[in-house]
Design goal:
By secondary structure, the chain is mostly helical. 78% of the residues lie in helices and 0% in strands. The chain is globular, with a radius of gyration of 22 Å. It starts with 6 loop residues before the first helix and ends with a helix.
């Protein structure tokens, strides 16, 4: 895969991820305005909504890319995807609402009642956005993706600044208005961007059994793989309180800059990997894998080193004193970034149609993650709660690497190809300057 051939998509994709980084500073404004207990409850709501959407992404929406390669099948695939997506999202949120009392006792988090009351509406507002984004990803329409996200972030940014200037961002309901308005506006623009592609039909050869046969193992894997990233806050709230969640989440939001960077690479890798594997272009696939991993490894090592040596203390300047311990959480979390490049290999396993393997690896990862998190909970060391997420990323990334090593015959040393590439580049540049 020639990078120059996809330069436009790469540029828009990176610009989109910069929106996430930029909004991170707006979130600091929100955090500074809200009491940590209020922000903790809001975090529980956002985490659960995000987790439901990720599960639906695996069961319903991943097939939009996997099976939408054939243009003739797209109307049928769209119908299956939207139907399953709607059932999963509204069914899950509705069930949470109906079972809010017993679930509150189970989680030992009193605030879950409030979370469950607002969850169905939040999911309803998010549902169209998620479906339409998958169409944009399928067609590599990164420019349109950028504008959909720009509306999402722009509306929330404008409302946040206005609310703070009016002294109206201090309660749970007020931050909900900001977030719901942004999500609703983003869903609306996403529908408008994809309106010509929103064609649905029962005609086609794709069966629900085939679609779900691919999606259900992936959904289970996604549910397990994202649980440590999103639902760890419920374990933290149960062992400590929502105040600790409120302090931990700013660190996790900042840490997501790393995740967003790798998501951008994954977005470009997956469609290309699907085509290469289907065409049995194994050598091209090997090149794609090794370049993706190796060219992200060195920058990550440098960034993590700088942050761990003291640069992360800059977080304190954006937060009020009650959030100061977020720096400790952040320093724990960023250690996992060192192995994140190997996490990109999951796209190769998915492209090979081996979603059942992803499920097994995710099950191992989530088991280790929550075991570590529970151990931290019983130890009473609140500043180490990020170790649960770190453990998950390390375990799953190693399992991905071992799997891809088998199917592509790639030794671990192949991922260090960036070293000779950089040396050759430097040598050529020096030769030109003489």
């Amino acid at each position: 895969m020639k990078v120059t051939a996809h330069l436009g998509a790469i540029s828009w994709s990176m610009a989109d991820k910069l929106l996430y980084v930029g909004f991170g500073f707006v979130q600091f404004l929100q955090i500074a305005a809200l009491p940590k207990e209020v922000y903790g409850v809001f975090t529980l709501l956002v985490a659960l909504n995000s987790w439901i959407m990720m599960v639906s992404d695996g069961s319903a929406l991943a097939g939009v890319i996997q099976f939408g390669v054939n243009a003739d099948e797209r109307p049928r695939v769209n119908l299956l995807a939207l139907t399953i997506h709607t059932v999963v999202v509204l069914g899950s949120s509705g069930l949470m609402f109906l079972l809010r009392e017993p679930l509150t006792d189970l989680f030992r988090v009193e605030e879950f009642v409030l979370v469950a009351q607002w969850l169905p509406l939040y999911c309803l507002l998010t549902l169209p956005r998620m479906f339409c984004l998958k169409i944009l990803y399928r067609d590599m329409r990164m420019r349109d993706l950028f504008f959909v996200d720009a509306v999402w972030f722009g509306v929330r940014t404008a409302l946040t600044i206005w609310a703070i200037s009016q002294g109206r961002l201090t309660t749970f309901e007020q931050i909900l208005v900001v977030d719901f308005a942004g999500m609703g506006a983003s869903s609306l623009i996403a529908v408008l961007m994809t309106r010509k592609d929103l064609i649905f039909s029962r005609r086609g050869t794709m069966t629900a059994r085939t679609y779900l046969g691919y999606g259900l193992p992936l959904a289970a894997a996604t549910a397990l793989n994202t649980a440590p990233k999103l639902l760890d806050v419920y374990v933290i709230a149960a062992f400590f309180d929502v105040g600790v969640v409120g302090v931990y989440n700013p660190a996790k939001n900042l840490y997501r800059i790393f995740e967003q960077g790798f998501d951008a690479v994954t977005t470009l890798m997956y469609p290309a990997a699907v085509r290469m594997y289907a065409q049995r272009r194994i050598e091209d696939l090997q090149t794609l894998v090794t370049k993706a991993v190796s060219f992200t490894l060195l920058p990550i090592i440098a960034i993590v080193a700088i942050l761990e040596l003291g640069a992360s203390n800059l977080i304190i300047t954006f937060l009020t004193p009650e959030y100061a311990t977020a720096v400790d959480h952040f320093n724990v979390l960023i250690t996992s970034a060192l192995i994140m490049p190997l996490g990109l290999l999951g796209t190769i396993i998915l492209a090979a149609g081996q979603s059942a393997s992803i499920l097994r690896y995710s099950a191992v990862g989530v088991t280790v993650s929550f075991a570590v998190l529970v151990a931290v909970g019983y130890s009473g060391q609140a500043h180490l709660v990020g170790l649960g997420l770190v453990a998950n990323i390390v375990v799953v990334s190693i399992l991905y690497q071992l799997h891809v090593q088998r199917i592509l015959d790639l030794p671990l040393s192949a991922y260090l190809r960036v070293v000779p590439d950089v040396k050759n580049l430097v040598a050529r540049r020096l030769g030109r300057s003489r």
